[in-house]
Design brief:
112 residues; Jelly Rolls; three-stranded antiparallel beta sheet; globular
């Protein structure tokens, strides 16, 4: 399991930097985070694992290309090109790429 301790973030952020693992590259699609949504594009190599998150709100993920395992609470979902997932983000959650993966992640309220 490849967990990368460094972070890579492109785009405006308020507060602390993101915890998206490097060498994944991320781009904030809505750099003004004063609204209620945060939209992030991410391109990550195989075996990239996000930290475990748990916060108020909701999230939606969409796989543009590749394969992604998403764990929410005790439930595990494997997503492929064209698949999407939505869940309440108060449940512990994280993802791991199973192949080179491009994805869009939307969170409300902004939390990354």
């Amino acid at each position: 399991m490849g967990v990368y301790p460094r972070t890579t973030w492109f785009g405006a952020r308020r507060g602390a930097p993101s915890c998206i693992p490097a060498p994944a590259s991320t781009t904030s699609c809505l750099p003004d985070l004063r609204g209620k949504l945060e939209v992030v594009y991410c391109n990550a190599p195989p075996q990239t694992t996000s930290p475990t998150y748990q916060h108020e709100g909701e999230e939606l993920g969409y796989v543009i290309r590749g394969r992604l395992r998403v764990t929410v609470g005790g439930d595990v979902f494997v997503l492929e090109r064209g698949d999407a997932i939505s869940y309440p983000s108060h449940r512990p959650h994280f993802w791991q790429t199973l192949a080179e993966t491009e994805m869009i992640w939307i969170a409300t309220p902004p939390s990354w």
